[in-house]
Amino acid sequence: MKLLLDANLSWRLIKPLKNSFEDVEHVNELPIAQPAKDIEIWNFAKMNNWIIVTCDEDFYNFHLIKGFPPKIILLRKGNLKTEEVATLFYQYKKVIKAFHESPHLGVLELV
What's 28's DSSP letter? Predict the structure, then answer.
């Protein structure tokens, strides 16, 4: 499972999330023009089989129009500290894995 952290999330999440998830990258490290536009991130994730992790509703709107892939994990918890986001992912690790494996689900909302 490959998680792509959107610009609205800290790059500092990479290290703690790599303890539980195989591959974690931040959009600022992608080989695309920076700052990356949402549609460029969407297209990159789709072409390279990444799950987008974001707080940005625009990706949800893309999903409504374009469907999936890519899959999206949408955080709806408000402003959380980096450690709190990492803890949330640990708590939902089994749910996230099931979401990743499901061919029928395109959006996972963590609230």
Answer: G
What domain range is 10 assigned to?
2-110
Is the pLDDT confidence value at 22 over 90? Answer: no
Q: Rounded to an integer, what distance in angstroms lies between the CA atom of residue 83 and that of residue 13?
A: 8
30-69 residue pLDDT tens: 888 889 899 999 999 999 999 999 999 999 999 999 988 9
- Number of structural domains (the chain) is 1
User: Phi/psi at 77 (nearest 5 deg)?
Assistant: -105, 5
The one-letter amino acid at 21: F
Question: What angle, 0 to 180 degrees and rounded to 10, lies between the N-to-C axes of helices 57-66 and 38-48?
Answer: 60
Would the CA dihedral through 41, 43, 46, 47 be positive or negative? negative
Laid out side by side, the sheet with 107-110 consists of 23-26, 2-5, 51-54, 72-75, 107-110
Token pair of 16 as six digits = 């703690």
Instruction: Please answer whether residues 5 and 41 qualify as being in contact, where contact means their C-beta atoms are separated by less than 8 angstroms.
Output: no
